[in-house]
């Protein structure tokens, strides 16, 4: 795939819309803010809110918080209730449903989440997160899981990290990000 690298890498963080992701998600958001990258999420609740909030509230960050906003309907697009969360600085409004029938369906916004990201980090989530990891593999995007001990990945053959420092090392390696200058 021929793509143009953004001037500032975009790190997509995928995860649960119902669970907040806890300290792992908050630590990841803060750490990404120190790299000088943009953050991309699905703009919703749960992990998406935790990561975006930590990212935006980190002093001295250079990147922006981007959210891909799902719609209530392809025919009459309106943002889903609760979208975007308050820590999304650049909401990308779409006509696409939350994740489509399978999450990898052509009418899923998950394609935009993955294709826009320079690298994808997935936290614990359900079917939507799994489908985003599958799409990252399909589109040959650098992707890794960041999971707490005891959590197992739902897509095999994708690297698994158990701590934020290791995940940040992966992001640095894949994007060349070195600090607030990007």
Written account of the structure:
The protein has 182 residues and is of the alpha/beta class. It is 29% helix and 15% strand. It contains 5 helices and 7 strands. The chain has a 7-stranded parallel beta sheet with strand order 4-3-2-1-5-6-7, with helices on both faces. The radius of gyration is 15 Å and the shape is globular.
Please give the structural blueprint.
Blueprint (H helix, E strand, L loop, with lengths): L9 E5 L7 H12 L4 E4 L5 H10 L8 E5 L20 E4 L16 H7 L2 E4 L4 H12 L4 E4 L13 E2 L2 H12 L7
Parallel strand pairs: 1-2, 1-5, 2-3, 3-4, 5-6, 6-7
Helix pairs in contact: 1-2, 1-5, 3-4
List keywords for this structure.
182 residues; alpha/beta; seven-stranded parallel β-sheet; 5 helices; 7 strands; globular
> In whole angstroms, how far apart are the ends?
23 Å
Number of strands: 7
List the uncertain runs: none
Strand content: 15-25%
Strand order of the largest sheet: 4-3-2-1-5-6-7
Helix content: 25-40%
Q: Look at the structure and give the mean pLDDT.
A: 91
Largest sheet: 7 strands, parallel
Give the structural class.
alpha/beta
Order of helices and strands: EHEHEEHEHEEH
Shape: globular
Radius of gyration: 15 Å
Number of helices: 5
């Amino acid at each position: 795939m021929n793509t143009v690298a953004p001037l500032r890498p975009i790190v997509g963080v995928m995860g649960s819309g119902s669970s907040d992701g806890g300290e792992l998600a908050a630590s990841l958001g803060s750490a990404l803010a120190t790299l000088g990258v943009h953050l991309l999420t699905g703009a919703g609740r749960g992990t998406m809110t935790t990561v975006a909030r930590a990212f935006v509230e980190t002093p001295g960050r250079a990147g922006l918080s981007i959210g891909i906003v799902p719609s209530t309907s392809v025919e009459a697009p309106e943002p889903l209730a609760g979208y975007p969360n308050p820590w999304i600085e650049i909401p990308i409004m779409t006509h696409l449903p939350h994740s489509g029938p399978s999450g990898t369906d052509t009418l899923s916004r998950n394609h935009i989440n993955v294709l826009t990201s320079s690298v994808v980090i997935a936290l614990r989530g359900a079917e939507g997160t799994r489908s985003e990891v599958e799409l990252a593999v399909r589109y040959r995007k650098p992707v890794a899981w960041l999971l707490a001990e005891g959590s197992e990945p739902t897509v095999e053959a994708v690297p698994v990290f158990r701590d934020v420092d290791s995940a940040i090392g992966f992001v640095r390696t894949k994007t060349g990000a070195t600090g607030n200058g990007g």
